[in-house]
Design brief:
alpha/beta, Rossmann fold, Arc Repressor Mutant, subunit A, 2 domains, five-stranded parallel β-sheet, about 40% helix
Length: about 230
């Protein structure tokens, strides 16, 4: 586990310190968070290789926190909790956790399970297609160029970041929450209007008819989707 980043989310400081000491001896870089909100901020900032999360936390519990994390990245999550019922364990595993450890626990066993979780973590996906061209729009992420009718389009940093996120997830509906977290960061999770404003700006620059968009489509009440056109 040397060099791996492990995020520990638990409101019990004694448990957090025990887990940190356990993984520090394994050579891991350990980040602590005292609650779900802080856990999401640290997750966004550090993009850990593994998450150890308690379920019973005030305000934002471990169930919802882990769900939001998995929306941002396919990271292995171990739920560490005092909930020992089979139904809770099944719910955790079906929700996407790779393992479920009940308290009290053996630090050595937790470390062994963490090593196993990292071994079975999803392999990196193949590089995404970062080039697109049709008879009107061209996008080249390698060259950081966007062309409309063969004319370069100047985008602001945020406009470009939004376009990249939409384009790299073409055909997939992205929620307002996902867009805000990926493009603006965790501190903007309630600023849905930002998404609308910048989506409108992109349409003004990229669409033939911004009022009847072909590429940047609205999924009403949910988010946006980038649609590629047949060549």
């Amino acid at each position: 586990m040397k060099g791996k980043k492990v995020l520990v989310v638990d409101d019990d400081i004694h448990i957090s310190q025990l887990v940190r000491a356990t993984f520090a001896t394994e050579g891991a870089d350990v980040i602590l968070a005292e609650n779900g909100q802080e856990g999401l901020r640290q997750f966004y900032a550090h993009r850990p290789d593994l998450v150890i999360i308690d379920l019973m936390m005030p305000e934002l519990d471990g169930w919802e926190t882990s769900q939001r994390m998995l929306e941002m990245a396919d990271v292995p999550i171990i739920m560490l909790t005092s909930l020992s019922d089979d139904e809770d364990m099944i719910r955790g595993l079906e929700q996407g956790a790779i393992d479920y450890v009940t308290k009290p626990f053996s630090p050595r066993v937790l470390a062994a399970r963490a090593r196993a979780a990292l071994r079975y973590a999803p392999a990196p996906t193949s590089p995404r297609n970062d080039v697109y061209r049709d008879d009107y729009l061209a996008i080249d992420l390698h060259g950081k160029r966007v062309l409309v009718d063969e004319t370069p389009v100047k985008l602001t940093k945020t406009e470009y970041k939004l376009l990249v996120y939409l384009f790299q997830n073409a055909g997939r509906i992205l929620t307002f929450q996902q867009i805000l977290e990926q493009v603006w960061g965790w501190g903007y999770q309630d600023s849905v209007e930002y998404v609308h404003v910048y989506a409108s700006r992109l349409r003004q620059k990229l669409e033939r008819d911004p009022k009847n968009p072909r590429y940047i489509l609205t999924e009403y009440g949910i988010g946006y989707r980038f649609e590629k056109k047949p060549r």
